[in-house]
Amino acid sequence: MKPLRLWSVLAFEARMLLAFVLLGAAALAVVGARPATVAAQKYGGELKAMLREGWPSLSIHEESTSSATWPAMPLYNNLLLYEPSRPVESAEHVVGELAESWNWSADGKRLTFKLRRGVTWHDGKPFTSADAKYTLDLVRGAGEKRLKRNPRKSWYENVQDVTVNGDFELSIVLKNPQPSLISLLASTYSPMYPAHIDPDTMRVQAVGTGPFLIKSVKPDEELLLAKNPAYFVKGRPYLDAVRYIAIKSRPTRFNALIAGQLDTAMPGEGTAAIRDQVVGAVPKMAVWPVAFNDTTNVLLNHKKPPFDNLKVRQAVNLALDRPSLVRSVFRGALLPSGANLPPPYSDWGLPESELPKLPGWGDAVKNKAEARKLLADAGYGPGNPLKFTVSSRAVDSYIDVAVWMISQFQEVGIEAKLETFETTVWYSKLARRDFVIATNLTGPGAEDPDANYFENYLCGSARNYTDYCNKEVEAMIFKQSQETDKTKRLELVRAIDRRLQEDGARPILGQIIDYFMAWPHVKGLVPHHNIHNYSRMQDVWLDK
Prior knowledge:
Elements: H1 3-31, E1 46-51, H2 66-72, E2 80-82, E3 94-96, E4 99-104, E5 110-115, H3 129-139, E6 159-164, E7 169-174, H4 181-186, H5 199-202, E8 212-218, E9 222-227, E10 241-246, H6 250-258, H7 272-281, E11 286-300, H8 310-319, H9 322-328, E12 334-335, H10 364-377, E13 387-393, H11 396-410, E14 415-421, H12 423-432, E15 437-442, H13 449-457, H14 471-482, H15 486-503, E16 508-518, E17 522-523, E18 541-542
Parallel strand pairs: 1-10, 13-14, 13-15
Antiparallel strand pairs: 2-3, 4-5, 5-7, 6-7, 8-9, 9-10, 11-15, 11-16, 12-16, 17-18
Helix pairs in contact: 8-10, 13-14, 14-15
C-alpha cells in the first residue's frame, strides 16, 4: 500500500471513530444533564468500580496516574471543577465547588474567590480560606510543610502570593497574566487539603470535604467509600457507597464486569478488542468512546548513552511506524497527534492537515531507511548493533506498546529487551531518571497547554522525564501562557507543538481513545474526553 493511500485509510478510520465519539458525546450531554428536579433519581445502593491495580496513595497532589485519581476523586473537592455533565472540557464551562464566585482583576494578575460557607472536612472541622491558602502554598512549595512528591509544582511557578481576607475570601496573586489558571484549578489534580492534617497522613487516611469518605481499606485489594452525611451539596450523593475492587489480570477484571460483579470499568482500560469481547457477551452494556487526553509516548533519557546522541534519538523516533501501531495494537483507536489533544476534542492540538507531517507518520520504508543511516552515522550497524532495555510500567496499556516498540526496533537492527515495574516503583524510577528508554502515558489532567507544557517540557520540571531542555522553546512556552488573546495564543501553542515534535523532545505515538463501559443501570456517570476528571461520583445513581 502506498504511503498516501495508507494515510487516507487511517484518516478515514479516525473520522469514523470521531463520528462515533461525537454521537456518544451528544447522548452523554442529554444523559448527564442535571434535571430540573431529582424525582427520577434513586437513592441508595453500592457502586462496584473496577481498579486495574492497587492505588499508589490517596494523596492526589502527590500522584500522576488514574490509579489514584479514579478512586480518590470522590474524597475531595476543588475550588473549581469542569462541568461534570459535559464530556468536552473547556475553561468556559468551569463551575464552582468550594468557590461560590470568582473574578479577575483588570490587569489579569489577581484571581479572587468568594468561598462557600458551611462546608466541613470529614472530621467535622470547618473549611475556611486558611485551608485553601495552605493547599496552594503546599503545591507551590511556599509553605512550611512539603509534599513527598510534587509533580505539578510547575503549574504554580507564576504565583507570587496567596492572600486571605477573612475566612471566606481568597486571592491568588500572579507575577504575569495567566488565563490557564482557571483550567488548572478545575483539574482533578487540584483538590483542597485540610491545613490541620499532615501531608503524609493524607496518603493513607485522606480527609477531604467530598461526597464520600473512607469506610475501610484493604491495601492493593479494595477501597470502600461511604456516603458523607454532612456533604454540603443538598441531596447528594445518591449512592450509599462506592467499592473499588483491584483486579490485576485484565481478562479477569473484564470477566468480572461481564458477570455483573462490577458495575463499571475503569477509565483507560477499554481497548477495541475488549469492547468487542464485552459487548459480545453482554449486548446491552453501555459503551462510550472517549479521548483520554493522554498521549502514548516514548521517554528517551537525553543525559544517558546512547540517547545523549541526537542522531540516535532521531533514529529511534523514525523507526517507530505509528500507522502500524494504530492498526495492530489499537485497532484504529489511536489518533495521530502532537503533544496536545487535537480538534474537536480540544481547541489546542495540531489540525488534521498537519498530522501526516509529524515524525513517524510518513512513509515507513523511507523513515526506517533514514533511521538505519542515522544509526550508522552514530557508529551502530550489523557488526555493532545498538542494544538497550525498554522499561515499562507493569500495566497492560504500557506493555502492549513496549512489545510493539521492540518489534519495530528489530526492523532497523536494534536489539532491545523489556523490563517491567509495579506502579509503586515506577514513578520513583522516572523521578530518579533511572531508565534509558521507556514507554509512557502522559495525561496533563487539565484542558490547557500550560498543564502539559509546564509539567513535561520546562527545563528542570520534575515530570520532564526526558530532561529535554531548550531555552528558546521554554521562552515560547512562557509567552503563550501570558497571552490573553486566544487566537494569538493558539498560534503560539501550535508552533511550540511543531517544534517539540521536530526536536523529538518526547516522541509522541498518538492520543488514545478509551472505550469506557458500564452496566445500563449506572446513571449520571458522564465520561469526559479526559481520563482523570469524571469520578467525583456525587451525581451517580443506580437504576435498580
